Amino acid sequence: MEPAVRSPRRLYASLEARDLPEAARWLLARLPGCRLATCTGIDLRDGVGLFHHFAVNGSPLVITLKVLLPKPDPRAPSLLPLTAAADWIEREIRDLLGVSFEGRPAEGRFLKPEELAGSFPLRRGFDPAASRERTDG
Questions:
Q1: Contact yes or no for 86/39 (Cβ under 8 A)
Q2: Distance from first CA to last CA of the chain, Å, rounded?
Q3: SS3 at position 4
Q4: Binning pLDDT at 50, 70 and 90, where does residue 1 land?
Q5: Which residues lie across from 64 on neighbouring strands?
Q6: Rg (CA), the chain
Q7: Dist CA 43 CA 3 (whole Å)
C-alpha cells in the first residue's frame, strides 16, 4: 500500500485489488463514524481506476483507496459484504465501465438500456454515434 497525504483533509492509498476488502474492513472497524461515501470508476490509459472514498462523520477527512484494474476484463472484490453502501455504486460501475465485482449476487442490468448490452458508455472506446444507430434503428 502506498499512502499519500495531499492536504490535511485528504488521504490516498494505492493498493492491489485483492487487498481492497481488508483495507476497507480496517477503516470501517477502526475509525469511528467511517463509512463508504461513494466509489468513482475511471477508464485510464493503463487500466480502469477504482477510487473508494471513505468519509468520517464529524470530520472533514476523506480517505480514498485507489485500485488500478487491468483491461479488457477489469475485476475487483465487492465491498457489499462489508457495507450496503457499495450496492448501487458497484452496479452502476459494472453497467457503465464493465467492472466485474466478485462476491456479488448475480444481477441483471441496472442503468443501461437493453440496446447498449455488451457496451460500456464510460469506456474510452465507446462510440456514441454507433449506439444511437442501434437505439434509433
A1: yes
A2: 49
A3: strand
A4: low
A5: 12, 53
A6: 16
A7: 22
Q: What does the angle CA 4 – CA 46 – CA 25 come to, to the nearest 5 degrees?
A: 45
Hey, what amino acid is at 35? R
Pairing of strands 62-69, 100-102: unpaired
**Residues 6+ positions from 24 with CB-CB distance below 8 Å:** 36, 52, 54, 65, 79, 82, 83
Domains annotated for the chain, with CATH where assigned, are 2-136 (3.30.460.80)
Contact (Cβ atoms closer than 8 angstroms) between residue 30 and residue 54: no
Average of per-residue pLDDT across 99-107: 88
The answer to whether 35 touches 27, Cβ cutoff 8 Å, is no
Q: How far is CA 128 from the centre of its chain?
A: 23
Q: HSE-up of 58 (CA within 13 Å, CB side)?
A: 4
Cβ neighbours of residue 29 closer than 8 Å, sequence gap 6 or more = none
How many percent of the chain have pLDDT more than 90? 66
- Which residue's entry shows cell 480517505? 63
What is residue 113's DSSP assignment?
A: -
Sign for the CA dihedral angle at 72, 130, 110, 108 comes to: negative
